[in-house]
Amino acid sequence: MLSRRGVFRLGAVAAGAAVVPGSAAALGRRDRAWADVAVPPPFSVPLTVPEAAVPVRRTATTDYYDMTIKHAAAEILPGVSTSIMGYDGRFPGPTIRAEAGRRVVVRQTNAMMHETVVHLHGGLVPPGQDGHPADAIAPGAQRQYVYDNRQPSATLWYHDHSHHMEAEMVFRGLAGFYLVKDPRERGLGLPSGRYDVPLMLRDARFDEQGQFLFEMDDFRYRNTLLVNGRPQPYMRVDARKYRLRLLNGSNERYFTLRLGEGEGQGEGDAMTVIASDGGLLPAPLTATSVMLSPAERVDVVVDFSRYRPGTQVVLHNTDGTSEETTNVMRFDVGHRVPDFSRVPERLGRAADLGEAIVTRDVNMNLDLTIGQFVIDGKTFDMDRVDTRIKRGETEIWRVHNRDVRPSVPHNFHVHGTHFQVLDRNGQPVTGHEAGRKDTVAVPIGGDVRIKVRFDRYLGRYLYHCHLLDHSSMGMMAQAEVIG
């Protein structure tokens, strides 16, 4: 039964105020069991790829989908039936594959006993289609979302955004991929078809019956890693290039991902980074690791032909401190097959947001006096406008994490636009963070500077921490874009 327990109490926040998600202190405590139900050994369960959503109708300009948001059962742990909340009852939800410039209309029916909202994360859509908590779908009701897809190719995702409830509802399964492609990308020759694989990474906690166990800000006990809803799976791959679309779908866990054989020691094997949140980078980059805070995406190309057939290559999380949180998944390399894909020297267009007119400061912290997370000293109020922004004007936002004691990480997500990350703690960012972004990590006691411009629609958009337990406890605000 879904409840609001812990949403407005200090609870685990105060108890673990000095515990930093991703730290040895957070994961090393043994005052409770790491998992209350037996989980399979790493790499004993095959990976599954989320099914593609099928349009119920197509016209010359539009694809129409019907989805039902409902309670269902899924086999996450082998032989165990786990109750979930799912789009069409699936975990993760079905993948919507959209074409840039071609409209997608999704009719969502709420078959649950409580309201829900669907947010297209990374979508450049009008406020009324964005999934604002004020636009809830009542039990038994329907809502039609219209996405014009006037944006470049990108790995997006959709998830619940209910008022004060998004953390628990996403934790219980309300998330799925939304992939946009455009003609420019199709002409690049990147790996495609079954060699273009979306991977939703997240953690979970189960009780002794194998049911999801949710407690607010309970990061340190969520020690079962899932990829596409499967625990630490393996995937058989041909010895050729693959595009892996990596999404951190966790509520609070950070991942630093590295690819390699054996126990994950050493520098890690090279991956070619081709895209971040907002789409393709201007040019490919070589990296031996990538860091993803919750909700961030990065697309990489891995050439498995460099490995001998029979090689087992592991995707490691170097932020983990145990087998449960270090080994993410394994790739079992098969025989070489013909491969006509490539990674060209030029990919997408560089972001150019122009010269900034306004500079703003955004302060994020845990207010221990009220036991809630706040932005600029306030908890979220749907009826309050916190910032007014003029459409078409470029601004610089200095986003500060004021939590030094207690040490609490945050990140920052802006709805309705993409931004450019200028620097973190005064140092320029590199890698996928240099591309178009909608979410960025904010270091403990530090800051990031981002360049933002809303140049499409008027109306209200949210900005918040995407550690969803934090946003559910108030760390969210809203901007109004004015003419």
Can you lay out the helices and strands and say which pair or pack?
Blueprint: H1 11-15, H2 24-28, E1 57-58, E2 62-74, E3 82-87, E4 93-99, E5 103-110, E6 118-121, E7 142-147, E8 154-160, H3 166-171, E9 175-181, H4 183-186, E10 196-204, E11 224-227, E12 230-231, E13 234-239, E14 241-248, E15 255-260, E16 271-276, E17 279-287, E18 290-292, E19 297-303, E20 312-317, H5 323-326, E21 327-336, E22 358-367, E23 372-375, E24 387-390, E25 394-401, E26 410-414, E27 419-424, E28 427-428, E29 439-442, E30 447-453, E31 459-464, H6 468-472, E32 476-482
Parallel strand pairs: 2-5, 4-9, 10-14, 13-21, 22-25, 24-32
Antiparallel strand pairs: 1-2, 2-3, 5-7, 6-8, 8-9, 10-11, 11-12, 14-19, 15-18, 15-20, 16-17, 16-19, 20-21, 22-23, 25-30, 26-29, 26-31, 27-28, 27-30, 31-32
Model description:
It is a single chain. The strands form 6 sheets. A 7-stranded mixed beta sheet has the order 12-11-10-14-19-16-17, with no helix packed on it. It has a 6-stranded mixed beta sheet with strand order 23-22-25-30-27-28, with no helix packed on it. The chain is globular and about 60 Å long. With 483 residues, the protein is mainly beta. The longest helix has 6 residues. The chain has 3 domains: 176 residues, Immunoglobulin-like (Sandwich), CATH 2.60.40; 144 residues, Cupredoxins -  blue copper proteins (Immunoglobulin-like); 125 residues, Sandwich (Immunoglobulin-like), CATH 2.60.40.420. The N terminus is likely disordered. Helix content is 6%, strand content 41%. It contains 6 helices and 32 strands.
